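Re: Re: ligand-bound prediction request (bumping)

Still looking for help on this. To restate: I need the protein modeled with pyridoxal-5'-phosphate bound, output as structure tokens. Inputs repeated here so nobody has to scroll up.
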Amino acid sequence: MVLRTKPLTKFEVNLDHLVENYHAVQRHVAPSEVVAVVKSEAYGHGALATSRALRRVGCRQFAVATVEEGIQLRRAGLDAGIMLIGPALPKQYPVLAEYRLVPLISEVAGMEELSRLALRLGRRLPYHIEVDVGLGRMGFLPGQGPVAAAAALRLAPTIQLEGVGSHLSAATASEEHNRLEYGRFVEFVSAFPAGVRRHLAASSAAARFPHMHLEQVRVGGLLYGIKHVTGGPEVTQVLSLKTTVALVKVLPPGWHIGYNFRHRVERETTVAVLSMGWSDGLMIAGVAKAGVLIRGAWCRLLGLCTDFAMVDTTGGPEVQVGDEVVVMGTQDSHTITPMELAQQCGVSTGELLGKIALRVPRLYLQGGECRDELSILCPGTLV
Ligand SMILES: Cc1ncc(COP(=O)(O)O)c(C=O)c1O
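Reply:
Sorry for the wait, this slipped through. Here it is.
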């Protein structure tokens, strides 16, 4: 018999919310198709369980950022399109072909390399062309449309152009700025024959700009209930990051909290010590600004160590050892969103979620019950 352990710190993923969000986004952008962005472990939620849940309800296209992320999904048996929106060097193309990962290519030389590989393998290989409309990273420049289109035509017998895509640099910024970048995309695509599949919008543009839905939208944040703009589909937060009170104590005036005298209490202070620290993904920059929910009350973060966090519960509810603590998520009528915590820590939401350590087990809830787990340390012992 395997003795089950209940982790003190856990990342709960509500798969019902994920699926509802997917349907809401798909309805909003229809007839455009949602490409589910599951890179960075699906923004910390766990790429395998989220991809499987989305595939079950009809999602047919997924996007990852590294070759290894794509291999992971393929090996797990995901029978869907997998677009590689992160970089790949030509020397990795054989692996892409083996695992049916579809690259976004930014240079004619890359297209030619893929074509040579296709000849060697004796089968036509799919790819997308990427355009740089303002991020200054991967992609042809907007004026290079005719060059890219000519190469695509010349190499068409061996490689199959599945689409042309780009990524906006500031989708939450002014309409005027986004009109400029959209114009650059249109300029590039105009060199291609009508009917080429186009994809430009991620979450914020999908919510704000219906004319940018085109044939596909690559959506990450909205699927996980992360929204930076008003309007667009209604989505619900998918994650809850929870920990547990390990000790409650009263500190005398003048006592310090945290390394290097980080915080000094001026008055008698009741402190709850939590079983979660910066090794789990909490950020020192959040000290004094961020807070957590315990027994329905918001309690300010006073200090942080590798594996502990100290919060102020003075004058608040009667906190006890073993109490559940919500770092992100809902307790009673209060909710802490990833956007709120990220702002308090001075980072982007993606950065915050990307830093939640893999030692924090992911627990997958469906119909209110835990159905699956992702634990790298002790798989099979949690649920
Ligand atoms: C190329 C590309 N497409 C789509 C996305 C998804 O963005 P969002 O999470 O805002 O939907 C990203 C995320 O950074 C990206 O880099």
